[in-house]
């Protein structure tokens, strides 16, 4: 074997071992084998059940090329019956070498003959090599056409090269199988991520589809950035890492207590029921006092009216979007009011815990409940620390756990500042806030109109310094929340 051929074999081996994209890998395989065999045309088939599917077709004389990264050849698959030379090579697991196709009667060459008639090509010599993986499974076939001599004339394939081509075909099959295995493992892991993301969202009716909406929006945002000068251009692997970070960003909510996560109003249901019962007791005590002659009918009515006003106040505060000073003052007055129980002791109209809950200024969570809710990012970090992410997913844990950090250091849990927060985290934070603002499934607020939500994002970026101003404007320009 010539040193030049050895170099070709080594080069093919390097290309095969380095490539992980299946389409480019198939192109390398066919191109490398054709160069090694010194032939004019070739086709690579992969087995699919009881057929051979065309993957790549190349003819240098005609200047035609289809398949691989250019899309599948639009040809029907070849049935695995023994009249076809490619099928026979696969079925009998042997290389078939034919010097003159048109004078061969052993196989059905009607396909090449029709091809020649349509294109003016002249198919003569042919070499068909089966591809076997390390388990000996035959996964496909390489068909080489028209070997060329040093003068460029069509000749028979060199018998001395057959063993070399079989070896390269076997290596190619193993590499293809490895890529398939890698894709299967990757899909398995991504399926696990999707399941976990769905489990987070479906654990509560008040968080349904949050991560999925963010991922869809994030995918479109990444695509939009490709056309923006000076912005990060994501490779496919980087985009997959970014989207996986989004899908896993709330995994810590798997352990957040549902009574906190699902808290629709300031009072817990049992607190609300207790106040309702207490107000009814106060009303009945007033009636008893009237019947016993301790108070007049007018005094009873006045007390009942007070109970009604107090209950209306409780309901108002329990559902308010924001508890202002005036409302807080009325709650404070109510919390200081007492009534005489049946045993004659003074009892409060509002228990201290009830007053504390109703006095929450914004949202439905108390300080302690908010701390519990915010702890989900720390739990996210701990849970993801137990997953051995591959190199191309090495940032998933970091990005997912940092989605509540702000550029001005007021975020949580680590109070990181701008220089510590990468572009991907800045994008996730914008996506998370926007989806939370416009979501119509949150217990503590109504869905916000999009334009108002965008105004809040701008304020957080420009006035408060929490979000990246440039990325915020690009997000707004992208309209990536709109399905195209």
Which helices and strands appear, and what pairs or packs with what?
Layout: H1 3-18, H2 22-37, E1 39-48, E2 51-59, E3 64-67, E4 78-79, H3 85-91, E5 96-98, H4 110-119, E6 126-132, E7 138-148, E8 154-155, H5 159-202, H6 210-225, H7 236-247, H8 258-261, H9 269-291, H10 297-319, H11 325-335, E9 338-340, E10 346-348, H12 352-358, H13 367-374, H14 376-384, H15 396-401, H16 423-438, H17 450-462, H18 469-478
Helix pairs in contact: 1-2, 1-5, 2-5, 6-7, 6-16, 9-10, 10-11, 16-17, 17-18
Short description:
It is built from 18 helices and ten strands. The chain is of the alpha+beta class and 484 residues long.
Features:
484 residues; 18 helices; eight-stranded antiparallel sheet; two-stranded antiparallel sheet; 10 strands; alpha+beta; elongated; 52% helix
Strand content: 5-15%
Shape: elongated
Number of helices: 18
Straight-line N-to-C gap = 58 Å
Task: Describe the protein in words.
With 484 residues, this protein is α+β, with helices and mostly antiparallel strands. It contains 18 helices and ten strands. The chain is 52% helix and 11% strand. The strands form two sheets. Strands 1, 2, 3, 4, 5, 6, 7 and 8 form an eight-stranded antiparallel sheet that branches. A two-stranded antiparallel ribbon has the order 9-10. It is elongated.
């Amino acid at each position: 074997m010539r040193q030049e051929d050895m170099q070709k074999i080594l080069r093919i081996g390097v290309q095969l071992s380095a490539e992980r994209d299946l389409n480019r890998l198939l192109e390398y395989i066919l191109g490398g084998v054709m160069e090694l065999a010194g032939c004019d045309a070739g086709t690579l088939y992969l087995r699919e059940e009881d057929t051979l599917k065309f993957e790549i077709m190349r003819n240098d004389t005609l200047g035609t090329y289809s398949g691989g990264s250019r899309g599948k050849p639009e040809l029907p698959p070849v049935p695995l019956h023994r009249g076809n030379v490619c099928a026979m090579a696969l079925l009998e697991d042997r290389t078939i070498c034919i010097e003159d196709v048109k004078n061969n009667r052993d196989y059905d060459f009607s396909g090449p003959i029709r091809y020649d008639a349509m294109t003016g090509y002249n198919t003569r010599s042919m070499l068909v090599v089966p591809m076997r993986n390390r388990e000996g499974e035959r996964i496909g076939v390489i068909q080489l056409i028209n070997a060329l001599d040093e003068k460029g004339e069509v000749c028979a394939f060199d018998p001395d090269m057959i063993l070399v081509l079989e070896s390269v075909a076997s290596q190619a099959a193993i590499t293809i199988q490895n890529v398939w295995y890698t894709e299967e493992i990757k899909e398995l892991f991504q399926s696990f991520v999707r399941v976990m993301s769905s489990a987070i969202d479906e654990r509560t009716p008040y968080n349904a589809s949050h991560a999925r909406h963010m991922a869809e929006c994030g995918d479109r945002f990444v695509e939009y950035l490709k056309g923006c000068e000076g912005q990060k251009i994501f490779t496919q692997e980087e985009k997959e890492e970014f989207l996986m970070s989004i899908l896993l960003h709330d995994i810590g909510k798997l352990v957040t207590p549902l009574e906190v996560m699902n808290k629709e109003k300031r009072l817990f249901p049992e607190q609300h029921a207790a106040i309702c019962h207490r107000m009814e007791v106060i009303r009945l005590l007033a009636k008893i006092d009237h019947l016993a002659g301790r108070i007049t009918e007018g005094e009873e009515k006045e007390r009942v009216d007070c109970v009604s006003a107090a209950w209306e106040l409780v309901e108002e505060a329990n559902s308010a979007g924001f508890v202002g000073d005036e409302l807080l003052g009325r709650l404070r007055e109510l919390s200081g009011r007492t009534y005489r129980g049946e045993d004659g002791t003074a009892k409060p109209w509002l228990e201290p815990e009830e007053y504390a809950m109703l006095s929450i200024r914004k949202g439905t969570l108390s300080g302690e409940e908010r701390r519990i809710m915010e702890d989900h990012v720390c739990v996210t970090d701990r849970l993801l620390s137990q997953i051995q992410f591959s190199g191309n997913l090495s940032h998933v844990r970091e990005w997912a756990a940092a989605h509540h950090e702000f550029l001005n250091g007021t975020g949580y849990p680590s109070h990181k500042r701008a220089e510590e927060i990468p572009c991907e985290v800045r994008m996730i934070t914008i996506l998370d806030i926007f989806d939370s603002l416009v979501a119509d499934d949150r217990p503590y607020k109504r869905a916000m109109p999009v334009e108002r939500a965008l105004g809040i994002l701008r304020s957080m970026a420009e006035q408060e310094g929490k979000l990246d101003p440039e990325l915020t404007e690009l997000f707004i320009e992208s309209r990536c929340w709109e399905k195209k």
